[in-house]
Amino acid sequence: MNRYARQIAVPGFGATAQERLGRATALVVGAGGLAAPVLQYLAGAGVGRLRIVDPDRVEESNLHRQTLFRHADIGHPKAEAAARALGNLNLETVAEPVVAALDPGNVDALVSGVDVVLDCADSFAISYILSDICLSAGLPLVSASVIGTEGYAGVFCGGAPSLRAVFPELPPRLGSCAEDGVLGPVVGVVGAVQAQMALTLLAGMEPAPLGRIVSYDGRAQRFGGFSFLGAEEVAGPVFIHADDISANDFTVDLRAEHEGRIVRPEALRLTAADFVADGPLPQAGQRAVLCCRSGQRAWVAAERLAALWPGEIVLVALGDHREQP
């Protein structure tokens, strides 16, 4: 127990909490900048198993903030490189790399047997897919996001309101690391908060961070936060896998032609602005399936369509593997 002596000595932690960590399994979605402190702190603390899911390979532009990786890792799958690094940190932690994109088709299998889910992918679609499955499974979801010099981490589901309850609508603009940039230390700060939230849950420490968001402004050097335990659940369009689209669906591909081949031969190529009173609408009994690259345009189109048509609407994110913060 020498490895964990300093954290066992923390008041409110102790040997019992350490034993809980050793039996715990965490799913970490994304192996980028947020996952770097998350994975190192969870493995260092003695979490028994870490399932790491990421489809991407290490690039040189990752290295300023994705501190698990070294120059020699460039070109290698992130999940595998992260697992190797953790093997050198703590042999008692089993690191299970999954080189794949999380989507509605595999999310059930990926969350099976885990005690907590950490959303480190900073993907709009993945966050809502994870929130939906965690809400139904009763699993806590520790989700975080960073853009530029600002970010937040929060604990949803598992007895707390879901991400949909707190963020039922899209902001006017969703940023990205590629467009808005990101500073490495800000990612490290938010990722460390995310790791602490997960360890508090897994160790059974009180008070639990369920239903809380912690924000960080790196430019002003200021933390903030609030509780959302009173937020009410709201219904919204769910994400499905592209393979689940049927010929009977009213399918719309919202991407431009240069973004890829149309999702299905019978699909319409439209934009969100085309959903107006005299525009194309599904027939009675049809399901509307709205597709785009990341899910953002599909969400906007769903809001417009729902104001005109009362039927079922689902979303498809067609391969949004954008860079993680």
The CATH level-2 architecture of the largest domain is identified as: 3-Layer(aba) Sandwich
From the helix content, strand content and strand pairing, which structural class follows?
alpha/beta
CA-to-CA gap between the ends? 35 Å
CATH class (first level) name of the largest domain: Alpha Beta
Order of strands in the sheet with most strands? 3-2-1-4-5-6-7-8
Shape: globular
Helix content: 25-40%
Q: Give the percentage of residues in beta strands.
A: 15-25%
Low-confidence stretches: 320-325
Count of helical segments? 10
Q: How does the major sheet shape up?
A: 8 strands, mixed
Please write the string of helix (H) and strand (E) elements: HHEHEHEHEHEEHHHEEEEEEHE
Work out the count of structural domains.
Answer: 2
| Gyration radius from CA atoms, angstroms | 20 Å
For this structure, the CATH topology of the largest domain is Rossmann fold
Average pLDDT figure: 93
The total of beta strands comes to 13
In CATH terms, the superfamily of the largest domain is NAD(P)-binding Rossmann-like Domain
GO cellular component, one term: cytoplasm
Protein name: Thiamine biosynthesis protein ThiF
Domain THIF-type NAD/FAD binding fold: 4-223
GO molecular function: nucleotidyltransferase activity; thiosulfate-cyanide sulfurtransferase activity; ubiquitin-like modifier activating enzyme activity
Please explain how this structure is put together.
This protein has 325 residues and is α/β, with parallel strands linked by helices. The chain has two domains: 4-227, 3-Layer(aba) Sandwich (Rossmann fold); 238-317, Oxidized Rhodanese, domain 1 (3-Layer(aba) Sandwich). The chain contains ten helices and 13 strands. It has helices at residues 5-8, 14-23, 35-45, 78-89, 107-111, 124-137, 163-166, 177-180, 184-203, 296-306; strands at 25-29, 49-53, 94-98, 116-119, 140-147, 150-157, 212-217, 222-227, 238-239, 250-253, 268-269, 288-292, 313-317. The strands form two sheets. An eight-stranded mixed beta sheet has the order 3-2-1-4-5-6-7-8, with helices on both faces. Strand 4 (116-119), helix 6 (124-137) and strand 5 form a beta-alpha-beta unit. Residues 320-325 have low confidence and may be disordered. GO terms for molecular function: nucleotidyltransferase activity; thiosulfate-cyanide sulfurtransferase activity; ubiquitin-like modifier activating enzyme activity. Residues 4-223 form the THIF-type NAD/FAD binding fold domain. It comes from Haematobacter genomosp. 1.
